Amino acid sequence: MIYKATHPRKVRGESVHQPLSEKIKQNQTNLKTISTSEMHEKLKKQSCLIDPKSLFIGNLDTKNLIQSEYFLPNTDCFVEGPDVKELSERIKLWIGTGYPVHLIGPTGCGKTSLVMHIAKEIGRPVVWINGDDALTTKDLTGGYAQIKQESMRDHYIHNVIKSADIIKPEWIDNPLAIACKYGCTFVYNEFSRAKPTANNVLLSVFEEGILELPSKFGQERYLKVHPEFRAILTSNSIEYAGIHAPQDALLDRMVGIYMDYYSLETEIDIVRKHTNIPYEEAKNIVFVIRKIREQVNEVQKPGTRAAIMVGKAMKQLNGNAEKYYNQLFIDVIATKTGSNVDLFQKEKLVNNVISQLT
């Protein structure tokens, strides 16, 4: 029997006479199915770290696809000198054994770039988060971000309307939960800038392979960590401002690797890779930065990033940098000064170091 509507009245755009079988048939017709190949092509247009094909882990469907906004951006300026290679091999050795690695070093020494490079070589999807004093456990694991309300209407009889409202809490996974669930490489940048209480959730992840989701209830409160899950954390040395000393119980579950600034030749190569300036210009910039580094305290030491900034400014000046040469170095280290007196001392230091080039 074919149903034929005889009453034009509609509620919320739908005919009150449309039976359930007709609604199901209509929904199936309107449903657009996205094939795996179409999804791959869509993801290729986004800046993901790895081939989108590897995002599909096991039998995941598209609705469980890891959110692409968490992926680490690709880097094209990485320089792998002998000292960088040796450090990378050590980190990958510990990562291969399944232990999380805590990379510790001064600002601007290249920790984040190294971690990004290693994460890419691991070949798994990558999620990351930046630690700060306001970060909480919820920022790591996730929580109920909003309440979803659904309404149901029964329109079988045109003059009878039955309704029911269903309120559903909607859970949103944050980076750590995503990494544990899908076996991603979890990069926790500036780990020691977050308060220890926020990082307690990592204890069971690193030791028992279980992630506890404090906001959930029942069996869904506990998530078994994927066997491909890996973690790399970065921190500044303890003497930097805003650094919290992590709890011993957590440090016991990680491998700590300290790194310093790279060698002279490696720093020169890094500056050239980022700026495309001639070798001699890059060498002089790195020489000045390294000399300044020798004569200031730990917190005020300029990193390789400062040398890159000077190199880019020189490139912008297109050969006319002589007028501003000294001032370029003063500007890049001025952000780490405490007063005009301190800045004056830095100016004298820069002028003295540059005079040694001639």
TrEMBL record:
What domain of life does the UniProt record list for this protein's source? Archaea
Main subcellular localization, coarse class?
Answer: cytoplasm
User: Mind telling me which SMART domains this protein's record contains?
Assistant: AAA
Might you name a Gene Ontology BP term for this protein?
A: gas vesicle organization
Q: What are the boundaries of the region Disordered?
A: 1-20
**A single GO cellular-component term on record:** gas vesicle
- Which catalytic reaction applies to this protein? ATP + H2O = ADP + phosphate + H(+)
The protein's name is Gas vesicle protein GvpN
Q: Which organism is it from?
A: Methanosarcina spelaei
Lineage here is: Archaea, Methanobacteriati, Methanobacteriota, Stenosarchaea group, Methanomicrobia
